[in-house]
Amino acid sequence: MLQRYFSWARKAITDFHQLQSSGRKITEFHLSSIVKICGRVEALQEGRQSHCLLLKLGLNADLILMTTLLDMYSRCTNIHDACRVFDEMPQRDVVVINSMISGLCRCHLSSYAIDLFTKMNQSNRDVGTWNSLISGLGQNSEGRTALIFFGRMRVEGVEVDVMTMISVISICADMAMIVHAQQVHGLVIKSGFELYLPVGNAIVDMYAKCGCMGDACLCYAKHGFGVEALEAFHQMEMEGVVPNKITFLGTLYACSHSGLLQEGWISFTTMLMNS
Predict the structure, then answer these.
(1) What CA–CA distance (Å, rounded) separates 36 from 53?
(2) 9-23 burial, b if ≥16 CB within 10 A, otherwise e?
(3) What pTM does this model have?
(4) Max CA-CA distance within the chain?
(5) Which DSSP state fits 196?
(6) Per-residue pLDDT tens for 169-196?
(7) For the chain, how big is the Rg over CA atoms in Å?
(8) What is the phi/psi pair of residue 159, to 5°?
(9) pLDDT class of 242 with cuts at 50, 70, 90
């Protein structure tokens, strides 16, 4: 599938060159699309050519186009040119700054990202600003720092969204921090995000990485993955892990909601034998 996407992207770049050669008018839409594609497939040379064309056409005042260009350079890990685009922008909105923070983190320049974040007026930050920094720090294996900023986000009364929770859950999973994991899960439930599939998957992964397979099984069950819950339960048995009450509850819950009557009866019998 990835190979198919790259092939499609290369064809799009070729088509754009043919459009240029035909003498037809190149619009902001064309440039925005091709720059975005160059960023996704890390086609730096073609991205630079598009940048030159953009300047030639006098479109460097287009905020959306320049933000796409900044993002392209950072995705190609060319932070020098990304910073140059950022510095040369006649005006910057919160989306531009969020993109720059993400780009700095992507290029492992977390301290610069934190500095840019800190210099922002607090009232100008939005949830995307916090998400860009927290997610970026997490991806750079700076989970503890990310959780500190998550704590600040909560103290300042910024409302979290799905992306915030997925990032924080992933950080807790990578650090195998069960206490934080349980607190975050509680916040997920309180915020009403538990039924979002990406959040549910992240919670299951978090509990599994924290070694809490019982909680992982229960989360599988709650999200309708009965077969997966049973597979996790059987994997525990094969590895010699003794199931606890939560594990059995999750397994029975999974069987109940997936119509797995026979498997549920077997699990119930096993529970009685182990009690």
Answers:
(1) 15
(2) beeebeebeeeeeee
(3) 0.79
(4) 79
(5) S
(6) 999 989 988 888 889 888 988 888 877 8
(7) 24
(8) -75, 125
(9) low
